[in-house]
Amino acid sequence: MTTGVEAKPAVMAVLAKHQVKPRGYIVGYFALMSSLAAAEAENEPQLIDELGNINPEHVAFGRDNKTRIQQLIGE
């Protein structure tokens, strides 16, 4: 995945400007996506305890920042 990011000079320029490495970008992106998904699933019926092993602060972050995360990921 990092190779795909590294192959895009425009993306790399933005990352370098903010001192973010490709791996950090990928990990951060997936952290945002998973916190949003967990927050959206929070009030849905669970077939199994899908949220049982998720840090409650991670879920709260997704809930509290839902609009901003959606803007950042282009949703």
Mean pLDDT: 88
Number of strands: 0
Distance between the termini: 21 Å
- Silhouette: elongated
| Portion of residues within helices | 55-70%
Q: What Rg do the Cα atoms give?
A: 15 Å
What is the succession of H and E elements? Answer: HHHHH
Which residues form runs of ≥5 with pLDDT under 50?
Answer: none
Account of the 3D structure:
There is one protein chain. It contains 5 helices and no strands. With 75 residues, it is mainly α. The protein has one domain. The protein is elongated and about 45 Å long. The two termini are 21 Å apart. The longest helix has 20 residues.
Short note summarizing the structure:
This protein has one domain (2-72). The chain is 67% helix and 0% strand. It has helices spanning 2-6, 9-17, 22-41, 56-64, 66-72.
Task: Jot down its keywords.
75 residues; elongated
Which secondary structure elements does this structure contain, and how are they paired or packed?
Elements: H1 2-6, H2 9-17, H3 22-41, H4 56-64, H5 66-72
Helix pairs in contact: 3-4
